[in-house]
Amino acid sequence: MKTSAQKRWILACFSLGLILPMTLRAQTSPTTLPDWPQKTVRLISPFSAGSSVDIMARLLAAPLSKMLGQAVVVDNKVGAGGNLGADAVAKATPDGYTLGIVTTGPMAINPSLMAHVPYNPTQDFAPIVLLAAGPNVLVVNANMGVNNVEDLIKLLKTSPSKYSYGSSGVGSTNHLAGELFAFKTNTKMIHIPYKGNQDALNDVLSGQITMTFSGLQPLLSNIQANKIKALVVAGDKRMAAIPDVPTVAEVGLKGAEVMPWYGVVAPAGTRDAVINLLNKDIAEIMSRPEIYKQFKDNGSEPSTGSPTQFANLIASDVERWGEVIKRAGIQSP
To answer: What is the pTM of this model?
Structure first.
């Protein structure tokens, strides 16, 4: 027969067993709603496993699962330049259980580039939060004798249409960066589309083409080895890894900024309470040093903000890139 002390001990242990999971859940998900989430949340990535977008999705999914107290599963829906994944988000039930990682391409470029996009980027989504953005950097072969943007512009004007730039494909952000640069400098260049950034970079290194625009990460080691020369950062501030390279505004090309971005959206009609909760939780995750560093190492600058700010960015980029595509007469192949 158990003593009174033993009974109190058993009761205490039983109570602790009930209370402890609730305490842990409260510590990891302090802002869950009474009725959400109650099942697995799907996070659609519109690009293939191993891509920079997929890496970001998986960096986000694990800590978000802990905060929500439910699994967050990355679902790769690949095709049509990111359109298939974006469309899957747009057409999902707006109950908070389908989210998507989106980029500048399917949200702000493809609607003007392609003849038919099955969603409206400013009407069919509920923007949640901007995750990160990273400026393009303009680089040339180090043996060209071009030391700055002014030298390059003189060269392009001396021999119109002689020089070329490579991109990761028609309508890619680095293709549009070249068109925007040519417009701002009143010059002409030959566009050479490749299957990816690395192919374009390889031909800059070998001297087959004159230049390319790219995110910094794949360029940095070759910049540091003096195999290519960075001329300008297409962002609003200089980059810590290449502090001597000026911004486009500093060289008189304000408006030539090219900042491909990544963000999280839900289907239009998703409750504001869910949107605001996710905005708060994801912003907290992005502020963690280990997450911040991994995004930086992946070539992007973590940058959050409100759902409204992200919505405004999408709308402004739809208009901006639509104008560039129309002016340059670019059509999807």
So the answer is: 0.84
